[in-house]
TrEMBL record:
This is Flagellar biosynthetic protein FliO. It comes from Caldimonas aquatica. InterPro entries: Flagellar_biosynth_FliO, FliO/MopB. Belongs to the FliO/MopB family. It is found in: Bacterial flagellum basal body; Cell membrane. It comes from the Bacteria. The lineage of its organism: Bacteria, Pseudomonadati, Pseudomonadota, Betaproteobacteria, Burkholderiales. Keywords: Bacterial flagellum, Cell membrane, Cell projection, Cilium, Flagellum, Membrane, Transmembrane, Transmembrane helix. The keyword Transmembrane helix applies. Its main location: other. The keyword Iron does not apply.
Length: 114
């Protein structure tokens, strides 16, 4: 009988530790994410074929920033060109950079049409 109680005791302890461990993991990721800048930002993307894309990303921070033009296929990623960062035309870079428009932008465009 004592072995059954011992098993039940440790089983309940493990069950209680699972939510605690998950909470600690969640908290530690928030601290790490708040102090680190993202390594890359997608500036523009264009599909070239069913499995090929041309992607422009911004890497680095401050004066070390640069844009990389990448050719992306299912098997490889190739750097095609490197250039200094530039301002996107039109203020809101999403539409001019080939990125999907937000719902608010699409709604404004639909309201303007007669």
């Amino acid at each position: 009988m004592p072995s059954t109680l011992n098993f039940l005791f440790w089983f309940l302890i493990v069950l209680a530790l699972i939510p605690l461990a998950l909470w600690m993991l969640k908290r530690s990721q928030l601290v790490v994410a708040a102090g680190v800048a993202p390594p890359a930002r997608v500036v523009a993307s264009a599909g070239l074929g069913p499995q090929q894309r041309l992607v422009t990303i911004e890497v680095g921070q401050g004066e070390a920033r640069q844009w990389l033009v990448l050719g992306v296929t299912p098997h490889t990623i190739t750097v095609l060109h490197s250039l200094p960062p530039q301002e996107l035309p039109g203020g809101d870079g999403a539409a001019s950079a080939g990125l999907p428009a937000t719902f608010a932008t699409l709604l404004k465009q639909a309201r303007r049409k007669p």
